Amino acid sequence: MMKSFKDIAYQILKEKGQPLHSKEITKIALNREWLNTAGKTPEATMNAQLIVDINTKKDKSRFIKTAPSTFSLNPEFKEPIRKEQKAKDVEKIYKISKGISSRQKGNIAEARIAELIALYGDTSLSCYKPISDDEGIDLIVKEKGSLKTMYIQIKSRFGYNPDEIFTATAKALSVVDHYSMAMVFCYFDTEQGDLWDYLWFVAAPDFVKMANKLQGGKMFGFVAGRKKKESNKWDQYLIDKRDLANAIIGQMSRI
Question: pTM for the whole thing?
């Protein structure tokens, strides 16, 4: 994850290949969730940092100013080749064991989801895994001190490519059109060795309504990307994995 405003601006300008206003650079960075700032005017911070960099470094700056608050890359700037960049070409790609089964992968993802639900939340939640194979229910979640219960079906995918499209299917008979049930779609990043920072949490009634109907309605299809797009209908359900417990608590209020 890139950290500084200048590094973020450099990456965006390099990708776009044309001058951009500081507000546009900031907008792109915020949409991609590259900026973590508590400031109320990040576009002003972006503009100020780029101007200071140009005024301080002169022709050695990575940036040039082409118009008021509008910046482009300095054509005279030569990006240094760093040791870590050289090493990146031969960086090891971690691959999961060939012998691991789909069921084992599912169990690993389900255990991690249960941990997140237990660890985070404004109130305490307890997770239970059905002893018998109850198809469609992977976790049972109960709010402590209450009889309200949620039934969670979890669909996971394993990989290391951030551009990979997430696809999953669910049997229509396994999804109950009621707010006591929800779907969780999570991506296990094998390079990071953990679930991706975000996951999709979808109330069962919403999933039934919005999912692609396959095989004459016998199957539901879910297709989403790990990069937010306005055309992606599932983006509204994409949440930080640490917000899952509170999302469940919120849905419990609808039961």
Answer: 0.63
Angle at 60 between CA 54 and CA 61, to 5 degrees: 35
Same domain, 113 and 182: yes
Our measurement of the distance from residue 3's CA atom to the centroid of its chain's CA atoms, rounded to an integer in Å, reads 17
97, part of any domain: no
Question: Do 53 and 155 fall into the same domain?
Answer: no
Residues 81 and 130 in one domain: no
Domain coverage including residue 74:
5-88
Q: Are residues 39 and 116 in the same domain?
A: no
The answer on 107 and 229 residing in a single domain is yes
pLDDT along the chain (255 residues), means of 10: 78 92 93 74 89 89 93 86 55 74 92 93 88 84 90 93 86 95 94 88 96 94 75 84 93 89
In a domain, 94, yes or no: no
Tens of pLDDT, residue by residue over 45-90, are 899 889 999 998 888 899 999 999 999 999 988 876 665 555 555 5
